[in-house]
Amino acid sequence: MASDDIEDPLLPEPASPRAMPAADLPPASMSKNWPALRLSSMSTRRLSPSMLGGGDFDTVTPAAMDRHTRAALVGLIDVMLALPVVASFASIIFQAPFFAPYIGQLVKLVCLSSALHQLIFSLFSTMPFAMGQVQDVGLIFMSAIASNVARACAGEGVPADETLATVLVTLTISTAIVGLLIIATGMLKLASLVQYVPLPVIGGYLAFVGYFCLAAGVSLASGVHIDEDPMTWAGLASADALLRLVPALLLLLLITAVQRRFSHPLALPLLLAAAPVVFYVVLAAGGWTLAEAQQDGWVTKPTPGEKPWKFWEAWSLFGFDAFPPTTIHWRFVPKQAGKILALYFVVAFGSSMDVAAIQADVATPLDYNKELVTVGMSNLVTGMAGVGYTGSYIFSQTLFNLKMGVDSPVMGIIVVVSEVLLFMAPVNVMIYLPNLLFGAMVMWIGQDILKAGDWLFIAYKRVSHVEYALLLATFGAITLWGLELGIAAGIAAAALHFTYSYARVTLRTFSVVPSRSGAVRTWDHRRVLEHFVPRVRACSLQGYLFFGSSVLVSAKVLAVAQDLVASLGQLARQESRGRPRTQRESEKLQGALIRAPLFLILDFKRVQGMDATAARTFVSLHVRLQRLGVQLVITHLPDEVPALRKLLASQGLILRTPSGQEEGHVAGSEIEAAGTCQWFETMEAGLHFCEEQFLDVAIESGLCSPRRSDVTLAEALLAHRSLSDAQAEPGGPARFEAAAALLGRYVRQRKLREGEALFESGDEPDCFFIIKSGTIIVEVSFAENEHQGKPGVEGAPTLTRAQNRTFHHDPGAVVGDFDFFAGRRRTFRALALTPAAVWVISRAVLQAVADESPSTVVLLQSIILRAASLTAVHAFEVLEKLT
């Protein structure tokens, strides 16, 4: 992978295809479930966004429906959802009271903007099922720009028509600038830079977006203007406002219930279509006229003297009747520079999350930078057309289209044509549709962002306590000080927190470590495992993993995995040129190597902590490794940092423990797991697990004998034979068999019941043991000192506690040799985990064997030296843990 293509693992890996291959799309004739539709892109943005619900596709449409007809049907469903959402978003952008007389015309402009966004996505996106519209993530900045310019113009006595023209031009220029910046970001492959905005800051901003939408929805439904000032909510304390608000709240509950209980894609559109019908039925039953409903605030009032809409005159709102236009007050545009820059970051970040979430459901890697360029192009085009309102992928509807098998441009054409027709229609839909419809939809989007979107409430379970505090602080800062200062304050607070955390550790995030366990195995098992060991790579992570370093860590780990996959062909050729073997043996080996899994071990022993962005990075990395055919194994999640496991699990990575238990979903969370991976307390245990999987394949392929519960003395000695010197070794296996025959005349066997002690700590070391059958565990107790108070201060209180470690030894292993040769009392205890048998080798036995065959003693010395080395490795691992 080229260095300039290294991106945050939240982002999909670049690819070159122009369009999604047909193989990646659900076949048109297959029986399938309807995906559940949701209205908001932001509220449904997940790392692993599976959106399938119940329901059989073939019970609704013919199985033989051709791709274009299917795309047309899906396009109509998208339109039924998109049109009311577009009108609602227009009401949010232009929520200031100044825009009330123009809202019908402004809805038309936003509708045309959505049509142009969809047109660009249909033409240039690599995904034929892409849905691109004006999006919620930029609404708050667009609304702030519109309101600020209108307020500034009013303060200087600018006429209303000139104020409107200035606002529209400022929004158009803002969107065009955002488009240019996003295009540059994609073309220069700088997408990962966008991800350096801390997640708590983005979460705090999005939580405010949710609050903003909720307040806007209440304002639309009740007719009471509500903004950032909490005191404006007091306006609801009137009978008329509450009377108008209650039906909207009931519709909100219905939308929520239908979305959760019904999976059919027509359920939600039909509810939205039925709401105005029910409203007019109630009007007729009560004897009220439309004019009376408009007068009472149930429906938007028509502007006095309003003329029928003529779409070709739309740009007269900009004052472009003369050129250069004289009705635009350009001095107000540069004052929005800070909001425009922040708008670029939130739109780029939101698009990053959308593409990453779509990638989770698409098998073929997306060209992220190209998709980002497409987002920039759509914003640039809408800006140049004079209807610039920021947009991006609508993630939920894009995935809906994917799962419906859309692979035809007809879907996009249907959406574009429908929105253009609404723009051209001479009717102002806002003076006919009830405000409760728009209010309920906007409130649903707002509450979903706050609740189900996880940005305020459920986020507590997905990030650390400090990060959640930063999220709330950013939310509060934006509420008190405004968008720019609030976001800047959040970034500053996140930077200070990171500086404090980073200063406590030395950051060395990546190193490759050996990929073999120290388990004692029989000779034929060790010989076979030599062929499989190259299929394991182990990487050690060190330091504090944060929202910036996780980019490089993931890229390096992914490069190791890609190198592992790429090296398989070379390994196969090396195996074919190895030691002489029959054709049958070669075929068995090649078949076993093809079926054997690939493993990548990530060791967290030296990780001091991570933030939620880094945790999400590892979830995305796990998905990408799965697509490469590499299984992720995690080891050494430190007990000193228990939040690490919880943080990974809360982001969707289920950790399967050695006992088979799974640590996964957080209770109450709707996040879906990216998959499961094994985790072990030590690197040794993780490597042992990988080798066991290889042995399963080798035994199934007939490359070695099945596992046995006991071994002969010759097999036990042969298990310690050096593989590298096997061919040059004088005597070969016969030497070990002769030594075993001689040793067998002197040693005695000892049988142990389950749980019986082989020796206790403090016993005399009068012998050592070679395990014949069963499993012996060695329990080592270490004294761990904790200094409380200032380090280095004489007399500082010290707390001593015991820390126990357990090591497992299987047949062929040597136990008790360290203390035997050191001549000291036993420093640990050993007992039988299962019924076991051992050979007992005393000093008298060694002397008798030495008198009869000195070469046998030399062989025993080499075996004991290897066993001592393994014991030293275990001891070093424990000492590292304690230091």
Automatic annotation (TrEMBL):
The chain crosses the membrane at residues 71-94, 106-125, 137-158, 164-184, 196-221, 241-258, 270-291, 311-328, 340-360, 372-396, 408-425, 431-450, 470-498. SUPFAM superfamilies: cAMP-binding domain-like, SpoIIaa-like. CDD domains: CAP_ED, STAS_SulP_like_sulfate_transporter. It is found in: Membrane. Residues 1-27 are annotated as: Disordered. Keywords: Membrane, Transmembrane, Transmembrane helix. Residues 1-10 have a biased composition (Acidic residues). Residues 541-653 form the STAS domain. GO terms for cellular component: membrane. This is Uncharacterized protein C24H6.11c. Pfam families: cNMP_binding, STAS, Sulfate_transp. The keyword Ligase does not apply. It is a multi-pass membrane protein. The keyword Membrane applies. It comes from the Eukaryota. InterPro entries: cNMP-bd_dom, cNMP-bd_dom_sf, Membrane-Transporter-like, RmlC-like_jellyroll, SLC26A/SulP_dom, STAS_dom, STAS_dom_sf. Residues 747-849 form the Cyclic nucleotide-binding domain.
